[in-house]
Design goal:
The chain contains 7 helices and 14 strands. By secondary structure, it is an alpha/beta fold. The chain has 2 domains: 121 residues, Rossmann fold (3-Layer(aba) Sandwich), CATH 3.40.50; 118 residues, Rossmann fold, CATH 3.40.50.40. The strands form 4 sheets. The protein has a 6-stranded mixed β-sheet with strand order 1-3-4-5-8-9, sandwiched between helices. It has a 4-stranded parallel β-sheet with strand order 11-12-13-14, sandwiched between helices. Pfam families: Asparaginase, Asparaginase_C. GO terms for molecular function: asparaginase activity. This is Asparaginase family protein.
Length: 254
């Protein structure tokens, strides 16, 4: 299946397909373009050719076809509005490369096509009423504002975009607010602001968040995090189930 999509939210949709659909036995390819098809120098023809080649390759998964590359949906982000290489997957890289000169697409060295699953297609339930909020730490008073929001937040789940390895300022009021949110049943996922970052309890601040009930997102990016939490909150996942899903996706250690 080929899906033509606007690029601004393409990675979010790709992650939704990848995480909500289980048992795909055919390729599901998303593509778009930075400039309209008829514009001079448009990247649309090349992206469509890449997507068509991806369909012929037949990988039974959801991928993004852009600028001659195939990216796995999970972990992919839009990284540029100015150049043809508008998408990237910092942790997992490209699955395949399309050669315009040869007119064919080749899998990355050492990568073998995955076996087609059996058992049929199954979809996770998506609850449109679920609310997921996102909070980004910046130097200054942001930690206090986030703490105040978490104490009053009616969201079912929240993303914390923290520093480096998942670090936050050492602030007792902030940790108390986090603990209050998670003790009410809210799922709070900690991800790194760094494009190729990994949120883990490496330092004391990260460990304090973990002890307050925060789930470490590891290599999870914003697009993947938002979809995972939407599914988690809509299907009553526990924090333990969320950790297991992150590990199964290769985003954290088991």
């Amino acid at each position: 299946m080929l899906v033509l999509h606007g690029t601004d939210t393409l990675a979010y949709t790709a992650n939704l397909f990848a995480l909500a659909l289980h048992g795909l036995d055919k390729p599901l390819v998303l593509t778009g373009s930075q400039w309209p098809f008829g514009a001079p120098g448009s990247d649309a023809p090349r992206n469509l050719a890449t997507a068509a080649a991806a369909l012929r390759l037949g990988l039974p998964q959801c991928v993004i076809a852009f600028d001659g590359k195939l990216f796995p949906a999970v972990g992919s982000s839009k990284v540029s509005t100015e150049t043809v290489d508008g998408f990237a997957n910092p942790h997992f890289g490209a699955l395949a490369q399309w050669s315009e000169a040869e007119g064919r697409i080749s899998l990355r060295d050492g990568l073998r096509p995955s076996e087609k699953p059996s058992g049929g297609l199954r979809a996770e339930r998506i609850n449109p009423a679920v609310s997921v909020s996102c909070h980004t730490l910046i130097p200054g008073d942001s930690v206090r504002h986030i703490a105040a929001t978490l104490r009053q937040d009616g969201a079912d789940a929240a993303i914390l975009q923290s520093y480096g390895h998942g670090n936050a300022p050492s602030d007792d009021g902030f940790i108390d607010a986090v603990r209050s949110f998670t003790s009410r049943g809210g799922l709070l996922l900690n991800i790194s602001q760094v494009q190729q970052g990994c949120a883990a309890a490496v330092y004391a601040q990260g460990d304090a968040l973990r002890q307050a009930g925060v789930v470490g997102g590891g290599k999870c990016n914003l697009e993947t995090a938002s979809v995972l939490l939407t599914l988690a909150a809509g299907n009553a996942w526990t924090a333990g189930r969320l950790r297991a899903e992150l590990a199964a996706l290769g985003l954290t250690d088991a």
